[in-house]
Amino acid sequence: MSAGEASIKYWPLTDVGRVRDGNEDSFLVDAKLNLFVVADGMGGHAAGEVASSVAVHALRETLAAERDAIIGFERGIDAAGRAEVLRLMEKAVQEACTRVYAEAQRDPSKRGMGTTVVALLVIGTRGFIGHVGDSRIYVVRNDSVHQLTEDHSLINELLKRGRLKPDQIAKLNMKNAVTRAVGVYESVEVDTLDFDVLAGDRFLLCSDGLTEYVEDADILRIFRDIPEDKVAQAFIDHANESGGKDNITAVVVKVPDTAAGFDRLASEFNLKVDTLHAMPLFRHLTYQELMRVMNIIDVREFSENQCVLEEGESGAEMYIVLDGGMRVHSGSTDIVRLGPGQHFGEMALVDKSPRSASITATEDSRLMVMRRRDFFDLVRKDHDVAVKMLWAFLGVLSERLRNTSHELGDAREQIALLTADEVLSDADIEEL
User: What domain count does the chain have?
Assistant: First the structure.
């Protein structure tokens, strides 16, 4: 947090569980960097313990060496700065991977050891995540729980591909198998995410020794009912009481509330999320995926009677009304009025056809804007988001095609009736 602001609070705990002889989990907290890390090691002969310990310290050392860049970002937030911090997060996890791998090569008894890693770096009002494996980060906000990481696990891959149903998970023997790990190979693919951090946010970083036993409702209940300084212990107790088959680590992080409680940034953020989630194009995205969409959207302000776009001009942006109102018109003829939550220009995301109508603000308004190049960049990098959004986009186009077909059918019926009336009138005239 910035100088003069209340400090972030944190409560880290780890426990061996009820079955294992040793603890292969590691955690690290650097209060000066606002860095929080959890790693769950794997490998025989205490190799998992070594892997997780090497990884968390290597990650911290890499980020600490870049402290000037982190401070520079906090003093002047911009898109390039965010991208640089995400690059640093990936670099830090890759360095951890290199060191764990090198350690394994030096000691034959540790060959093949590896570890999961989840890291949260909070800089001002932005959070940055680096993630490999099936340890997780959750955020609790507005009385809701959201998972900010996606498991790199065999189970998750089977679920995503429709090869496994949730009620079949309990029957599997390989429930802990991961598809990515730090240190097994010299490098690894790292997932990164940046997002808005809101006043009062509470985060839970944890190993799968906890996540195996908790649902979202359990997480929400514990955060709601237990004093904040006892929450981490409550998670450890819950996992042990439920079986404690693995090591358990829980790092609880609390962002301070503002003096006003629910502040303007939180209200603005929730308005954007609610608006996006109500749209067919984004309806099927997870919370984490919506965060990625939020990162490519700008908010622009328009005054009353200001032109947003002109009929016939080339467009490369989709607009979503956040608040205010819009008038869609051709010349002086109104076509439709648009209010909050409604959108226009989505075809500009996929082609360069001229705008089919003009748009003018009917009052002071704010619009969320998505550019074609950013949309393409997102779907190219994130295949899951690409499939969901493009499938939803096809659904929107299909709905429009059906509506157009119905309208054309109604128009044909009206023309047929008019033609019949004209024929009857001509026949009457001839008889006369």
Answer: 2
Q: Which residue has the tokens 């009206």?
A: 414
* pLDDT of amino acid 432: 45
The reply to whether 2 falls in a domain is no
The answer to whether residues 305 and 416 belong to one domain is: yes
Question: What is the 3-state secondary structure of the chain?
Answer: CCCCCCCCEEEEEEECCCCCCCCCEEEEEECCCCEEEEEEEECCCCHHHHHHHHHHHHHHHHHHCCHHHHHHHHHCCCHHHHHHHHHHHHHHHHHHHHHHHHHHHHCHHHCCCEEEEEEEEEECCEEEEEEECCCEEEEEECCEEEECCCCCEHHHHHHHCCCCCHHHHHHCCCCCCECCCECCCCCCCCEEEEEECCCCCEEEEECHHHHCCCCHHHHHHHHHHCCHHHHHHHHHHHHHHCCCCCCEEEEEEECCCECCECCHHHHHHHHHHHHHHCCCCCCCCCHHHHHHHHCCEEEEEECCCCEEECCCCECCEEEEEEECCEEEEECCEEEEEECCCCEECHHHHCCCCECCCEEEECCCEEEEEEEHHHHHHHHHHCHHHHHHHHHHHHHHHHHHHHHHHHHHHHHHHHHHHHHHHHHHHHHHHHHC
Segments forming the whole domain that contains residue 405: 263-432
315 and 255 together in one domain: no
Residues 249, 379 within the same domain: no
pLDDT score, position 330 = 92
Mean pLDDT by 10 residues, the chain (432 residues): 67 97 96 97 86 98 94 75 94 98 93 96 95 98 94 78 65 74 96 94 97 96 97 98 97 84 75 88 89 93 96 91 95 92 87 89 96 90 83 75 73 70 54 48
Domain final position from 260, 282, 297? 260
Tell me how far the alpha carbon of residue 143 is from its chain's centroid.
Answer: 18
One-letter amino acid for residue 223 of the chain: F
Residues 172 and 304 in one domain: no
Residue 364, token pair as written in the block: 């002071």
CATH number at residue 272: 2.60.120.10
Q: Which residues contact residue 69 at a Cβ distance below 8 angstroms, ignoring those fewer than 6 apart?
A: 84, 85, 88
Quick one: 243 and 366 in the same domain? no
Which pTM does this prediction carry? 0.85
Pair (213, 341) in one structural domain: no
Q: Which of 383, 24, 7, 278 is nearest to 176 (CA)?
A: 24
Q: How far is the C-alpha of 201 from the C-alpha of 10, rounded, in Å?
A: 12
Beta bridge partners of 326: 338, 361
